[in-house]
User: Fold this.
Amino acid sequence: MVKVGIQMYSLREEIARDGLDAVLAAVRDAGFRYVEFAGFYGMTPEALAAKLGAYGLSGMSAHIGPDGLAEALPYLDALGIKKVFIPWLKETAPEEPDTVKRVRDMADTLKARGVLTGYHNHAHEYGGGGDSVRGLLEAVPGLTAQLDVFWATAAGLEPAALMERYGARLACVHVKEMDGRTTADPAQYPNPVPGTGKVGMAAVFGTAKKLGVTDFVLEVEGFPFPYPDYLKQSYDAIKKLYEEKER
Assistant:
């Protein structure tokens, strides 16, 4: 089953301004049924699960670092989250033993609970022609990748080629479009609707279909127009991009 979620970090400013309930209603009205967390809003696991349920939403995945895992475990249980992605590691090279041990310990803890562990890239993992994501995948058994196609593009790479490289270890795609005017600073312009920028979303979704990837998470650095409209247009675009590759 194809799952299309929204990374709630994208909506942090909107939540601060409009409140969590208003934003969850907009997410639901746009068509989403899944969310990816990056924090739990100071609510108890039970209260957050009840709030999600009130809007017909489910926890799809979460961004959690090794240092925050113990605190997050009750939320994973209450929300039924089965995939956790490490959002950032300053040092990700496999030759750093401490880094590998932290990731391996996290993956072992989550595996024992039936939860998959993965790593979400930015651009720095590909500096100097390297690929620290692949290095981590090789160093940590069972670790998966959540490829952020925006940051892969910012690193000067073809996201679809990276997807092929990771193959069966690719668990999810972060769908974040890049404005065609972007030059030095990848975040200098708001994110266009997926499929209308320079990432090459047709190739991304074609490769996802080929590899059997069915989890997609929209992430936004900046909205180009009011967020309820953007969410709706982006959800429809993601569904269309995937469905076009089924035909």
Remarks:
- Residues 227-244 form the longest helix (18 residues).
